[in-house]
Fold this sequence. Notes:
Blueprint: E1 8-15, H1 20-31, E2 36-42, E3 47-52, H2 59-68, E4 72-75, H3 78-82, H4 123-142, H5 147-174, H6 181-194, H7 198-230, E5 236-240, E6 246-250, E7 259-262, E8 272-276, E9 279-282, H8 284-287, E10 293-295, E11 300-301, E12 306-307, E13 312-316, H9 324-337, H10 341-366, H11 368-371, H12 376-389, H13 393-411, E14 415-417, H14 420-427, E15 431-435, H15 436-440, E16 446-452, H16 458-469, H17 475-486, E17 495-500, E18 504-509, E19 512-517, H18 519-524, H19 532-541, E20 545-551, E21 554-562, H20 569-578, E22 582-586, H21 591-601, E23 604-606, H22 611-622, E24 627-631, H23 637-642, E25 645-648, H24 652-658, E26 662-664, H25 670-705, H26 711-730
Helix pairs in contact: 4-5, 4-7, 5-6, 5-7, 6-7, 6-12, 7-9, 7-13, 7-26, 9-13, 10-12, 10-13, 12-25, 12-26, 13-25, 13-26, 14-25, 16-17, 20-25, 25-26
Amino acid sequence: MTRMNATTRLAWRVEGMDCAGCVAKVTRAVERLPGVGDVEVNLMAERLSLSLAPGATTPEAVVKQVAALGYTATTLAPAAASDRPVSEQHHAGHDHDAAPASHGHGHDHDDPADAEKAWWATSKAKLVWLLGGLVVGAYALSLALPERLTYPLFLAATLVALVPFGRRAWALARAGTPFSIETLMVTAAAGATVIGAAEEAAVVVLLFAVGELLENVAAGRARAGIRALADLMPRVALRLRADGSTEQLPADRLAVGDLVLVRPGDRVPCDGTIEDGTSALDESAVTGESIPVSRGPGEAVVAGSINADGVLRVRVTRAASDNTIARIIRMVEDATASRAPTQRFIERFSEWWTPGAMIVSALVILVPPFLLGWDWGTSLYRGLAVLLIACPCALVISVPAAMASGLSAGARRGLLVKGGAALEAIGVARTVAFDKTGTLTEGRPRVTDILPAPGQTEQQVLELAAAVEQGSAHPLAKAILAEAAARGLALPAAADLAAIPGKAVTAVIGGRLIGVGSPRHAREAGAQLGGLDKELARLETEGKTVAVLLADSTMLGLIALRDEPRADAREGIAALSALGVRPVMLTGDNRRTGEAIAVSLGLDVKAELLPDDKLREIGRLMEGGPVVMVGDGINDAPALAAASVGVAMGGGTDVALETADAAVLKDRVTGVAELVSLSRATMANVKQNVAVAVGLKGVFLVTTLIGLTGLWPAILADTGATVLVTLNALRLLGWRPRA
Length: 739
């Protein structure tokens, strides 16, 4: 082992973790090692990362400490070790404090080979089959044989389970988690055998093992939601050689600059740019957009999309570890490690719950014989049952299980949320503030109206204007040229192209000086607008920019342009209003244009705002409750950061993945309402889980104290509740936005 000269960031894959309790146990255990700091344990990614000071603790000691808890740790490559959760890059995702001690289930963690086995063939399942056989066999024999002959079978079943569970309870206690469910369960089961209740002790350990098996299956299903994203990537790619032939190689070995062939029906194996070919691409798996989109030379394609019809040659622009799919997977995994405020509260609560319940258990054993006249056997039995009810595993897992499912369900529909904190905040927002350009609108002006002067036609006006605008990089010029191209117009030859800054562009066409300029420039040039004067006023009232076409000083026509709202903008605003959220538009555009767009979409507007004004407006809106800011992720960065939650949209996947707290991968305004619905569905699931976890324990605590239920119903109160909340959380994986 080479000696490290500075604090080093290392990472391991930890196999066998399947609930929040596992995360807390690993965290606490490795934090106790000297020289270890900044510990992060990610349940969904099965990753432990930490900083290690030189000369204090070796990586081997970390692996040994984790193994003592029953988990298997495998060293990850340095790149994986240095990965930092995306959630740490922005305020609402900030939550990298070490997870507090939780006292949830530990597990009989299997060897790595179990990861490839069916659930019924894992070592956990084998323990369940062995215990089940012993318990069922003993019960069957007890119907025919006297108790003294069958009692040893129940005792054997108990001891078979208590050996691995007891070993783990001891390891956990040494690692800093003395109040684990293993400790409580072993104490209760051992106590039951001492007072002659081995039958119930055997059922307790069997139910405990069954519960762990079901939790393991449930955790595997939750992870499968993320693995489904990885399955979007094809296993192989066709790389083009210099001579035009192709070679097949694993997709993860493609390098930046490689040229790949994508045939009809193939999945695109990389992020890249089309060099040759045109095709419709189904990007629904990545962006949630159900309609295939046409892509041609020079346009970007994303990994995982399906090539519908044409043959494409694509130049690789990102390595496999950094393509869109890989970054989404990494972001979802890291997001599950960011704990929501509700989750943090419950984890803190659980730290008091278990010791408190231990005290109650002791009081149940010691006080009633003196005050209520119970015999010592009854008080000991009921006290042991209270011990089993004491574990808050179901309560602790209730929030992260729901959050992980909600985050995965959103990611599969193009809705990315960077952590539980942001997901929780979105649903309680009172206001959603939208930027206009590139968010509510398409971000590029389009020709909306062409009004020719008497004696002219629309085609003539557009041909002359486009000829003058050739070579200009101005957005309005590009819009006029795009409209001419869309109509297939042949442009006349233009000479002596010139610009009058801020006013017009001119060119000589057919011996006449043709100009395209503002209405103000036309008036200054002495042009008479005639009957089009009223039309000009109407167009400007609609928030449109009007260009006047002049020949010398004669007006030939008007061309109106506007950055049009997105096709689904009105629907998206209406959906938010229906959810009881107030939509408002914050724009730096002029008041008339802003109000025209706002009226057409049905929302309030604040116009002519400089960046500082937007910040002040966000602050003012936040006085009335949480605010979600939706922007294109580039020029709205300060406002996105200032809001309760920032949502990036309209800036492309790069920006959407790297900025703000959440992102709508496809430019869909309706996606913002879907984010609110997803958040509310997730938090409703959380509340259901907490109610089940607390309610079941409360009921069984009362029935145990009054003698209606005993040890095995008590373990049902814990394991049963844990399985119920996990299965309820998994329902979220099927979440779909309302049509």
